[in-house]
Structure formats: structure tokens, C-alpha cells
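Methods — Computational structure assignment.
A single polypeptide chain was analysed. Its primary sequence is given first, followed by the predicted tertiary structure written as C-alpha cells.
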Amino acid sequence: MIVVNRGGVLLVARAPAVAAACARALRDAGWTVTLAWDLDTGLAAVGAPTAYDCVVIDVELPGNQAFDFVRALHARCPAVPVLLVVGPARGAVPPPDLGALPALRHPLEPAALVAAVARATALPRPAALPGGAAERGARAPHDGDDALAARFVRALAGGWVAFQPIVDAVTARVRGYEALLRTDEAALRRPAQLLALAERLGRVHEVGRVARAAIARAAAAAPPGCDVFVNLHTIELLDDELYDPAAPLAAIAERIVLELPERLAADGLADARARVARLRRLGFRIAIDNLRGDPAVLGALAALAPEAVKLDLALVRDLDAHPTNWRTVAAVATLCRELRAAVVAVGVERDAEWSSIAAAGVELVQGHLFAAPARGFLRG
């Protein structure tokens, strides 16, 4: 999963479980998140020497003083966008003087919040923001929007797909490939740069659609019997085109393994299982990406029943030198064998890592030790 450093979000919420899930989703999308459980703590956080690019506040917090909080916030940081989260029973419209963006509603889906924060922080804002946010790249009103949009369009037009082989951990024979979108646009050749611009422009769905269509075209040349793994951005799960039987990738769904964020296994989208079921009905298989060994996630894997899991790079890197990580990887491999899910260790760069991974019972490996992502398919 691509992670980009985007800035700070203050999340003031009343439900710890939901807030924790939302915070994880934001962090996985590259945001630095501060959690506050009441208005006083939230206002104190605003007064700390930290700049926030967006504030999210639950208006149903005890005391119902959320609107006063927003006014106090804007008195200190008038340019920071505010997202309100309202309960299903609340019919009142926030006072017009608040300057808040359209409200989100409970039950709050982490993916919807990530999308809303991306849109809010992409809006035109004054060049000088309190607390130093301007130094981190906040835009002046309409500054360069046309040029950025043109660059984005060129990047998508020049997009192509690289494939990195996934190999058997014992024999090193190629068993599948991960598909990765690349572009020839000079300023956006790093995937993180293209994704950051897409979020700034509110056009993540376009990147996903272009990537899936390009992968569908390129995958026609994949060796027989090899799966193609496709990583999905969290926001893509809210795109109706993903579930369209007529979409290009759906035509080869039986060869595709969709990589979904780890948090969906426990507490991601409120209807995660229903979304996964829709994808499976199209013929897709499911992988959980960036698995870190979190007990809550491991306990929920059986319900989601993924066909594969991909270990987080932090577990794999220097595995031979970290006994605790090795035991975690071995335990995950044992659990996944019981669930009939393949395990993929990513980021393998050294022979010692490869040996340790195989000894832990991991079935598949991926990394520069075997091949870097490239055009076409490495066969073996």
C-alpha cells in the first residue's frame, strides 16, 4: 500500500472503537492523527504547537457544545477546514457562521472519512495559515490548479503497468505477479506523487479506473496459471465502477486477487463483508494487505476468509535478526494454513531473509532479491 505524508488531522470523537478505526484509516492514508475524546482536550490540542490541515468533530459529544468548539477553533485557526459528524437523529443544520463543510453521518465509515478529509484539504485555502501549515504545502486560492490538473491528465494518459513476480518460497518458481501503475510523466513518476496529486484534486477514482483498465489489458499476456495481485486504495472501495460486471477487470476476475487494507478484516467499512461478497460474486479473490499480526485482525480473518494475506514489510525486513517477528510470522503462517489462505512475504532483499521466511512456513515471497517491478512478465 502506498503511504504518503500528508499532514495533520485532529479527530474529536465520542466512540473509542469507531474513532480508533478512523484514526488507523487516516494514518494508513498518510495522515498524522491526534485523537481527543472531549471538547476541552480537543481545544487544548489546537493550542499546542502542532498545525492541523483538517479537524473532524463529532457534534454529539457530551455537553453538545460542538458548535462553540468550532467557533473557538476558527478564532485561533480560521483557515483550517472542519468536518462535522452528526448522528442519524440530528436534523438541525449547523449555524451558517461555522463555515463547516457538509456533514458526515454516523455510522461513520473510515474509508468515507479518508475521502472526505482528502477533499477538504484539497480545497483552496489562504496562503498564510496559522501554525505553519503553509510551510507544509497548503495552496493559495486556485494557485496552479489548472497546471496541476493538466499534469494529472498527462500522467494518466502516459500510464503503464509494471509487474513484480511473486515466487514460491521453496523453489523460487513464479506463481503470480503484483501489478503496479507507473507513468512517464516526469514529475509524477513516483507512485506516491501521483496518488498525492489525485487526492489533492479529488480524483482518486480516476486513478483506480485507469489502473484497473490498464491492468486488464496487460494481464492478457500473463503466463497461464499465474495470479495477478491488484492493490486497491481505500477510497476505491466506494467506487461503484469497481463492482460493475462490465468493467474491464471484471472480465478476467478469475485471475485477479484484490489486495484490501488490513483494517477491513476487523473494523474498516461498516459493510466490508457485503462489499467483499459483491467482489467475490464477480469472480475476484481477496487478499489482506500489510498484515502486521494485530490480534484483533487475526481474530477476524476467519470471518472475511481471504484467499491470501500479504505480510507487512516491517515484519519481513531483517526477519533473520528478529526472533519475535519470526515467531509472529510463523504463527500467521500456521493460522493461514488452517484458513487455506496463502501467505506472501513482501520486500525480500537478502538470502537470509528468504531462508528465515521459508523456515517460518510462508508459502510465497516477493521482492528485489528475485526481480524489481518491470514492464512485461518475468517467467520462471
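Note: The radius of gyration is 22 Å.
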